[in-house]
Design goal:
Chains A, B: Its EC number is 2.1.1.131. Chains A, B: Pathway: Cofactor biosynthesis; adenosylcobalamin biosynthesis. 2 copies of one chain form a homodimer. By secondary structure, chain A is of the alpha/beta class. The first copy, chain A, is elongated, with a radius of gyration of 19 Å.
């Protein structure tokens, strides 16, 4: 029996946003590996071993998956959202690079609905034109890189989506992000704080940049910043498709 | 009977990438509105009226959907990929803004698997760190805006995804994009040309920037450009999660 690894995106939370491809992989799996709250979204069943692990141990988790697959197990690594967006796919390839004995592993990456697109859909279409996705966590990169990318995104008049905007461990980072935005964008720039979209805890709040406060975000929030043309129509926020010459 | 509009993302092509939420909306619909090849992906059935229309008539299509919903119809506007990424959601809100008589319309946006994430999953994880999505079509914006955004994305060392890279009508645009990339990035920068991902016509081709040629892309291609740290491991391309200080 030959083992395999599927790195699967569970989407933002609702079952209705899990693709049939991901559901099929979970139905065939012998083992599910992932961060505790994501593994908790997989229904237990006979023949399925769950391997929940803590945050910040992505490389250990990936190494476990490679070992299990080499033993012939059918392993699904679960990510929230899409596995290729600030999630487990890159971690698996880092682990693969460090473990040449697993070079022949049978790997598939199964895309999912990433948080920024689920949040944008609830708000309207704030990412309806060119946009950037930036991870504001400075666990794996210096804040100077975040700042450089923010300034570039402002210079390019991109709409922006921020992942991991704020944690208890570093509340000052997001305050600094708002300062940088205020220095480069007009005060009426629209910002949507989208928390836990598609779960029972969902909450959306759209404000102007002048009104935005750091405490409007937590680690379950995706922050969507419009470009200079983003506007409201009724309860919706959208970015027009075109830019006039 | 009260009508509604759902703007639904069909994903990149495969049925296994259509969310259950979108399938449910299509099952309840009385009318499906959209660009001809996307409407062709919806199975005909009794009680369902299909309204396929040509490209570049997005506002007419959105106005039709608003009119049908006002008549009590259950309308799904279909987009390829995700409706909020260079697709019909923004067009619907533009039409809504122009038609205040429809201000009370019951609208939902249903996210889908957007082309860049399906393509990234096939390639590995080239968008595994901060990235930009840029529409290279100059139908609705001057090329100077595209150029400004490209330069900003290079300055920020973002990975990039390009939608609509090349058409018969303007083959020179993508050649110019490659020139701009060559001026700002190292020749070994990895670029993946991902064509028609998840369809029978799927084709992936990863080359270096030095090897990239304009004719490697057409309008069914999404182009993924790595950041300065993007690399290969075996047949995969991935962008590491971190940036070393």
């Amino acid at each position: 029996m030959s083992g395999w690894i599927a790195v699967a995106g569970l989407g933002p939370g609702a079952e209705a946003l899990v693709t049939p491809e991901v559901s099929a992989a979970l139905a065939e799996a012998s083992d599910v590996v992932g961060y505790i709250p994501y593994v908790a979204r997989v229904a237990p069943r006979a023949g399925l071993t769950l391997h929940p692990s803590d945050n910040r141990v992505e490389l250990d988790r990936a190494a476990l998956a490679l070992t299990l697959a080499a033993e012939g197990r059918r392993v699904v690594i679960v990510s929230s959202g899409d596995p290729g967006v600030f999630a487990m796919a890159s971690a698996l390839f880092e682990a693969l690079e460090a473990a040449p004995e697993h070079a022949g592993a049978d790997i598939r990456i199964l895309p999912g609905i990433t948080a920024m697109l689920a949040a944008a859909a609830r708000a309207g279409a704030p990412l309806g034109h060119d946009f950037c996705a930036i991870n504001l966590s400075d666990n794996l990169k210096p804040f100077a890189v975040i700042e450089r990318r923010l300034r570039a995104a402002i210079a390019g008049d991109f709409a922006m989506a921020f992942y991991n905007p704020r944690s208890k461990a570093r509340p000052e980072g997001f305050a600094r992000v708002l300062e940088i935005l205020r220095a480069g964008c007009e005060p009426g720039r629209l910002i949507t704080f989208a928390r836990a979209v598609s779960t029972p805890d969902e909450a959306l709040n759209t404000v102007t940049l002048a009104e935005a406060r750091p405490e409007m975000a937590d680690m379950r929030t995706v922050v969507l910043v419009g470009n200079s043309g983003t506007r409201r129509v009724g309860r919706w926020v959208y970015t027009p498709r075109g830019v006039k010459p």
